[in-house]
């Protein structure tokens, strides 16, 4: 780990970012040319003290997940992300399996949607980054690890995850998640993460195994979704999808007609704050 070069690199990338680049207001009294350390720390999902120590060359060696978070927070390109990993004493992630790296252009779009439920997901339904409104609607889906990062995996292994959808829609949602997973497997093939996830679920869930045996295939998210919030009730929302053809990632944006009952409910999300997801039973 090259602490001095890592510190220099982080400072340089922070100075190169402006508040407008990441969806933050500039404010009339800003003296810093780029972002403040605490702003970058918040974007990366870490404490300001931890990030400051890295910039001062006195922090511990960051883990690979922490480096991935820093790469997203600083809007690094793939080449810059690889450089960051090497400075921190890690091998750069393989370019052929870079599904966790969100392109800076996609992040810039997301930064301008902070009051709108929006999130970036992989082709396996793993949420990489969310707006505050998306966390209020769906809960913090970026906190999971391992196979549990995938929505389809949580659906069949964590009963509490189903509470996002009305009970009467559960059969349809289960079938859709399985069909989308089969499509992901056809793209990834044997030995892929999708294949390993399928093998694990087949050994854990009879419901999944029965649906998997149907060989249904679906290649994209449905346009309209009914979502259930513990305080706001059921909302029927449009779900627009922007596909990044380089990575297979999808930017999902949830909207409703302004002034409609569902639109009024969406407007309340940022007031309510992040949704609390109950522990699995």
From TrEMBL:
- Which CDD domains does this UniProt record tie to the protein? HTH_XRE
> What is the superkingdom listed in this entry's lineage?
Bacteria
- Which organism does this sequence originate in? Cellulomonas persica
Write the lineage as a comma-separated list.
Bacteria, Bacillati, Actinomycetota, Actinomycetes, Micrococcales
* Name of the protein in question: Transcriptional regulator
PROSITE patterns, from UniProt? HTH_CROC1
- MF annotations from Gene Ontology: DNA binding
Q: Which SUPFAM superfamilies does the entry mention?
A: lambda repressor-like DNA-binding domains
HTH cro/C1-type domain sequence ranges:
34-81
